[in-house]
Every structure is written in structure tokens, then in C-alpha cells.
UniProtKB/TrEMBL annotation:
Stored PROSITE patterns: SIGMA70_ECF
Keywords for this protein: DNA-binding, Sigma factor, Transcription, Transcription regulation
Annotated family: Belongs to the sigma-70 factor family. ECF subfamily.
Protein name per its UniProtKB record: RNA polymerase sigma factor
Listed GO biological process terms: DNA-templated transcription initiation
Coiled-coil ranges (or none): none
Top-level taxon: Bacteria
InterPro entries documented for this protein: RNA_pol_sigma-70-like, RNA_pol_sigma-70_dom, RNA_pol_sigma70_ECF_CS, RNA_pol_sigma70_r2, RNA_pol_sigma70_r4_t2, RNA_pol_sigma_r2, RNA_pol_sigma_r3/r4-like, WH-like_DNA-bd_sf
Gene Ontology MF terms: DNA binding; sigma factor activity
Length: 186
């Protein structure tokens, strides 16, 4: 027996089927929280964003028309909520989250990796919004450029341009951070 498509589930939800909504939540909630956490940088806000996005899906189910794939429409909702959250609240750096224990046997390598990850996330957070969304959709979410373009409402070449600019900015930003770090050691 085949799994119902997202579009089939939306049709069932339009008729008030709560079980269909639970299936969509199972498919998308964790991914939405992860995306929102990368975008806004705060776990609590990310969970609220994902929950609000799913609530909007439930409310919109009777009016939903499959003009685009459900996933595209859903990620557009999540992105809009992330953008709204970023406009409302100042970004808190990863330092505010504190350090977490590293279970890896090589603690030094784990710390270096954490510093690299922190530097990368900080650099991504400074990108213009559309570049940041393009980077998150393609590299963290694993979407193709075509799917990212559909979510962003632009062309594939537009996404590629955003990615080129974002990568260039990240290289410059991370290169400058490395040089500053090396200057501290000298």
C-alpha cells in the first residue's frame, strides 16, 4: 500500500481529517524546526515557528489549491515566519547558547569543529536574507536549485546567483576571521 501524498493528505484535511494532519506533522515538523533553528538561531523560536507553520497549514487546508507542491508551499510559510521573527527580535549569537559537552573521544578536534561550525553559522547569519535562505535550502535542507527556486519564487539562475554571492561573502568573511585568529596566536 502506497503512502498518501502530501496533496492527498491536504485534501483529507480539508474534510476535517485530523489523522491526515498528524501524518503531515510527522513528515514536516522536525525539518521545519531544524530549518527555523538554522535561520533564526534560537531553539524556542524555531519550535514556535514550526508550530505556527503547521497551524497555518491546518487552517488553510479547506482553501488550499495544489498550484505548487505542498513542500514548496510549506517551506514558503516557514521562511516567511522566520523572516518575521528575525525582524522582531535581535539575533542572539551562538555564544548565548553556551557550550555543550562533546561525547567524541578527541575533545580538541571536537572543540575545533565547534569553532568552525560557530564561525560558519555566524557568517551565514550575516548574509542578506535571500542569500541566507538559498544557502539553507540547498546546503542544509538538500533541496535542488530548482526546488529552492520554486520556494523562493525565482528562477534557477536566480538561485545560482544568490548562491555564488553567498559563497563569495562567506569565503571573505571566514577568511578574514581566520586571519584575525592567526594574528591572536602570533
Amino acid at each position: 500500500m502506497r503512502e498518501p501524498s502530501d496533496e492527498d493528505l491536504m485534501s483529507a484535511m480539508a474534510a476535517g481529517d485530523e489523522a491526515a494532519f498528524r501524518v503531515l506533522c510527522q513528515r514536516y515538523a522536525v525539518r521545519a524546526v531544524a530549518f527555523a533553528r538554522r535561520f533564526v538561531g534560537s531553539g524556542t523560536d524555531a519550535e514556535d515557528i514550526a508550530q505556527e507553520a503547521l497551524l497555518r497549514v491546518w487552517r488553510a487546508a479547506p482553501r488550499w489549491r495544489p498550484d505548487a507542491a505542498f513542500g514548496t508551499w510549506f517551506y514558503r510559510i516557514v521562511i516567511n515566519l522566520c523572516l518575521n521573527a528575525r525582524r522582531r527580535l535581535p539575533f542572539l549569537g551562538l555564544d548565548a547558547a553556551g557550550e555543550r559537552a562533546d561525547p567524541a573521544p578527541d575533545a580538541l578536534a571536537g572543540l575545533e569543529r565547534q569553532e568552525e561550525d560557530r564561525a560558519l553559522l555566524d557568517a551565514v547569519a550575516t548574509l542578506p536574507e535571500r542569500q541566507r535562505v538559498a544557502i539553507l535550502l540547498t546546503y542544509w535542507e538538500g533541496f535542488s536549485n530548482a526546488h529552492a527556486a520554486e520556494i523562493l519564487g525565482t528562477s534557477v539562475s536566480g538561485v545560482e546567483t544568490l548562491l555564488v554571492r553567498a559563497r563569495r561573502s562567506l569565503r571573505l568573511s571566514l577568511g578574514a576571521a581566520r586571519k584575525e585568529g592567526q594574528g591572536d596566536d602570533a
